[in-house]
């Protein structure tokens, strides 16, 4: 597994971004999670998709604005983020892990592999 996160950037409040987490190693059977870490704050769970397809969101973060999807043919998991707010500014990381149960998706320690992170900056 070799994860590459992309799609971050600078966007105005109310705008949208789509983050992508590609597995360059083209592995299969992995659950994928998105986490974020804002300056001075701890890393927090955003959303995760358990292999093969059940999805869990952190409702306090997502608030119905984000959606997760997987394109298995491209070995990529997407995080579509709409109605972005300044508090969404953070480095977003994707992670992959085998044999995760659904309730483990929010736990960073459950994942074996991490991407490098992509910075999302939302301006007011």
Structure description:
The protein has 124 residues and is mainly beta. 3% of the residues lie in helices and 49% in strands. The chain is built from 1 helix and 11 strands. Strands 2, 4, 5, 6, 9, 10 and 11 form a 7-stranded mixed beta sheet that branches. A 4-stranded antiparallel beta sheet has the order 1-3-8-7, with no helix packed on it. The longest helix has 4 residues, at 59-62. It is globular and about 40 Å long. The N and C termini lie far apart (37 Å). The relative contact order is 0.32.
Note the run of SSEs as H and E. EEEEEEHEEEEE
What is the percent of helical residues?
A: under 10%
CA distance, first residue to last residue: 37 Å
Structural class estimated from helices and strands: mainly beta
What does the radius of gyration come to? Answer: 13 Å
Estimate the strand proportion. Answer: over 45%
Shape: globular
Count of discrete alpha- or pi-helical segments spanning 4 or more residues: 1
**How can the largest sheet be summarized?**
7 strands, mixed
How many individual β-strands?
11
Average of pLDDT: 95
Stretches where pLDDT is under 50 for at least 5 consecutive residues are none
